[in-house]
């Protein structure tokens, strides 16, 4: 059932913590950074695997805050321990403020072929509100630099549901003209223990209501489709042929190794993950938590992740685990209501019902 393997590397360093972020990331001392990178390299060296790696994703945090030589060394370390496909997709997440031509050229030379830039918005007011250090001008400059260096697969992240935006059409068209080939448009989730949560709680910041956020999301859907960005997952849109292979592997419950603090791995039906505490990870990266998934849990994950994609879940993957769609009463009812559909190969949620995907998935589990 599982045919491809990916690698995720977590770089938890940032210039500063964004107000909405609850990821394992932050501004650490140079001493901790140095120890962390060495630990990361040591962890990678513990795995000697003959599997072919089809994607590498260097995420964070903000990997681009590191000296480019460290990123080059990181990829060399991975290549020395794994068999990397010649056509592997290799992505690095970047912040506009920490990008420059020297870094981009080093990334390109090292084999990175996909850049993901966290611009979040083209509105300076919104960027200030959510604690981003860059502005619109810097975001545009970062995209142009990546394009100039020769990157033809460029993703940008956008946050939805913060304030009203009357320039959605212009923004999307502008990004396309800049050379952006993939847009990840995420609805803002207000997480506890974040600065933005406290600001909203004490009334110093007022975000869009749920109805306003949905209206804005639907406007993005319409506009992205208008300019040729195909929706292939709930929050991900791309021009033809520019889907993120690494993320698709996650959604199809493929195998992956995760390296670094808080990183998860899934190999041979076993999930294991590292500590969320950077000092604990540095102290003992081998102290991992293991979970062997039952067939029932694998089915649940296939449905929860796979049905996020417009193409849905492979029926053969479900069948191999003993899940028969035509033996599920809830599935039969939803098929009759045209909420879900099947073809010869897949089960999927009909396009107009993606807004209630959670309810549909819970009924199928």
CATH superfamily of the largest domain: Aldolase class I
Distance between the termini: 20 Å
Q: What class would the helix/strand composition place it in?
A: alpha/beta
Element string (H = helix, E = strand) = EHEHEHEHHEHEHHEEHEEEHEHEHHEEH
Spatially, the strands of the biggest sheet line up as: 7-8-6-5-4-3-2-1-9
Rounded mean pLDDT is: 94
SS element count, helices? 14
CATH class category of the largest domain: Alpha Beta
Quick description:
The chain is an alpha/beta fold and 365 residues long.
Question: Which helices and strands occur, and which strands form pairs?
Answer:
Layout: E1 5-11, H1 30-45, E2 52-60, H2 68-81, E3 83-94, H3 101-109, E4 114-120, H4 124-129, H5 136-149, E5 154-160, H6 168-178, E6 182-187, H7 195-201, H8 210-226, E7 230-233, E8 236-238, H9 245-251, E9 255-259, E10 264-267, E11 270-273, H10 278-283, E12 289-292, H11 295-306, E13 313-314, H12 315-320, H13 329-336, E14 340-342, E15 346-349, H14 357-364
Parallel strand pairs: 1-2, 1-9, 2-3, 3-4, 4-5, 5-6
Antiparallel strand pairs: 6-8, 7-8, 10-11, 11-12, 13-15, 14-15
């Amino acid at each position: 059932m599982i045919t491809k393997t990916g690698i995720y590397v977590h770089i938890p360093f940032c210039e500063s913590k964004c107000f909405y972020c609850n990821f394992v990331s932050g501004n650490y001392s140079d001493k901790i950074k140095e120890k962390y990178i060495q630990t990361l390299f040591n962890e990678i060296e513990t795995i000697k695997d003959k599997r072919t790696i089809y994607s590498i994703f260097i995420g964070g945090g903000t990997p681009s805050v590191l000296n480019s030589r460290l990123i080059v060394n990181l990829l060399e370390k991975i290549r020395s321990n794994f068999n990397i496909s010649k056509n592997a997709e290799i992505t690095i997440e970047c912040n506009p403020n920490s990008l420059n031509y020297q870094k981009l050229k080093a990334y390109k030379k090292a084999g990175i072929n996909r850049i993901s830039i966290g611009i979040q918005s083209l509105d300076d007011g919104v960027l200030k509100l959510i604690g981003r250090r860059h502005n619109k001008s810097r975001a545009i400059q970062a995209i142009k630099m990546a394009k100039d260096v020769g990157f033809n697969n460029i993703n940008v992240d956008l946050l939805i549901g913060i304030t009203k935006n009357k320039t959605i059409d212009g923004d999307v068209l502008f990004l396309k003209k800049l050379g952006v080939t993939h847009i990840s448009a995420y609805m803002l989730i207000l997480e506890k223990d974040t600065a933005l949560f406290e600001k909203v709680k004490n009334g110093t910041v007022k975000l869009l209501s749920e109805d306003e956020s949905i209206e804005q999301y639907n406007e993005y859907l319409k506009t992205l489709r208008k300019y040729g960005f195909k929706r292939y997952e709930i929050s991900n849109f791309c021009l033809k042929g520019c889907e993120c292979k690494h993320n698709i592997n996650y959604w199809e419950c493929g195998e992956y190794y995760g390296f670094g603090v808080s990183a998860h791995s899934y190999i041979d039906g076993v999930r294991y993950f590292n500590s969320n505490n950077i000092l604990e990870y540095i102290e003992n990266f081998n102290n991992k938590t293991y979970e062997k998934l039952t067939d029932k849990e694998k089915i649940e994950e296939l449905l929860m992740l796979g049905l996020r994609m417009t193409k849905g879940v492979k029926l053969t993957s479900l069948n191999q685990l003993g899940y028969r769609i035509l033996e599920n009463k809830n599935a039969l009812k939803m098929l009759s209501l045209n909420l879900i559909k099947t073809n010869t190969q897949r089960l999927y949620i009909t396009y107009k019902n993606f807004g209630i995907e959670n309810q549909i998935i819970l009924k199928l589990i």
